[in-house]
Amino acid sequence: MMKLSLGPILYFWSKQKIYDFYESVADTRIDIIYLGETVCSKRRSLKTQDWISLANELAENGKQVVLSTLTLIEAESELNTLRQVCEQRDFLVEANDMAAVQLLSEKNRPFVSGPFINIYNAKTLEFFHRQKLKRWVMPVELSGETLSQILQQIKETKLAEGIETEVFSYGQLPLAFSARCFTARAHELPKDQCEFVCEEYPDGLPFTSQEGEEVFTINGIQTQSGLCYNLLKEIPDMQQMGVDILRLSPQYEGIEHVIQTFSNVILDKAGLELEEKPYCNGYWYRKPGKDEIGAVLP
After folding, report:
1. Which residues are registered as beta bridge partners of 217?
2. Whether 221 contacts 234, CB under 8 Å
3. How confident is the model at residue 60, as a pLDDT?
4. Which residue among 39, 121, 192, 236 is least packed, with the fewest CB closer than 10 Å?
5. Quick check: 38 and 71 in contact, CB under 8 A?
């Protein structure tokens, strides 16, 4: 049976909001929950030990918990935090940077590769599998056709047999990272004195073109898609391919409804609809990422 995962929170939320959020999803049909700060090390609503304590609580509630690592590591302090996450033994780790991959493989620890690790073919997947890769999250820019080819090659060659495949299926696409903080820049603040203005945008800062098109969403040092990526109607195709897990990205409000809707489609049930708004799924069809191909399932 295909599973649902909840990716790490990509935005800067208060400590209380984070706890309230995970309390609200604890009894949903989410199977796997990713915890941790992946975007900016200055966001310290929760410390490493806080995340681990929260992970224990969710695990006691029957969830599989994975600790996610920072994506762009620039300082020794960030490496120290990375080491703490990789050295704990209670939870699987999602590596979002090659430093994390190295630390985990040196310790002979199974791990998950996040969507920021560039795995574009079966040979690369097999290489990481030898380093103890247990599950990979497909890079968001890859198409469904490419994924199908990779999974078929794995099946035929048995190069990475038994590995789990996870696909980012709902939320603002995490596209790129930079050493510069775009949210601080929008407020004419330097990165080192950012005043944590990103907390004012719990779902990111919309960035529109001169024509008024929602081109991107700004999230600190991370650039995201302007529209919400939505692969709800592609679930039957992914089931046929052999995709194991669909990832939903946390949003400030309404994630419970999204979880229920995706779960119903997986179980071939009817009854719920997603919010009516513009979506995108172009990457899946090898089209411009901002495009929406076809209609969202009722």
Report:
1. 206, 224
2. no
3. 96
4. 192
5. yes
